[in-house]
Amino acid sequence: MIGLDTNVVVRFVVEDDDEQTLKATKLIEDAVEAGDALYVSEVVLCEVVWVLGRVYRLTKEELVDILRALVQARELDIGSREGVRRALDAFMGGKGDFPDYLIRELALGAGCDRIATFDKALLELPEFFSP
Fold first, then answer.
1. Cα 62 to chain center, whole Å?
2. pTM for the predicted model, two decimal places
3. Domain map (residue ranges) of the chain
4. Average pLDDT over residues 16-21
5. Residues 28, 76: Cα–Cα separation, whole Å
6. For 36, 74, 105, 123, which has the most beta carbons within 10 A of its beta carbon?
7. 41-54: per-residue pLDDT in tens?
8. What is the DSSP string of 54-66?
9. What is the pLDDT of residue 79?
10. Contact 130, 117 (CB under 8 A)
């Protein structure tokens, strides 16, 4: 299994650096052809959202479309695929950021009953509380 770092995923998606895009694409295509698994962690997905939103100024809708494509790609092993899907749905319709909703999904999946936060937008959701 090959783990993909944020910069490899960003180059593959954005295609803004010819040399790095070529290398990222070749790595991914070669791994798929060889039947090697490609792992993308939840941390990488959060960083991808940050980079694409802050640096490339993509809209929430564009970010969700890209992440949905990554999550749906059979060639990628996403840490918590269903949790990421639920976090994307919440992000699309919510006031919080994608990592906030992913934190919720991972915490609930780990057996947490509630999540402490100071983020006022998240306090509207029943799983979050102010300490």
1. 13
2. 0.89
3. 1-79, 80-131
4. 95
5. 10
6. 105
7. 999 999 999 999 99
8. IIS---HHHHHHH
9. 84
10. yes
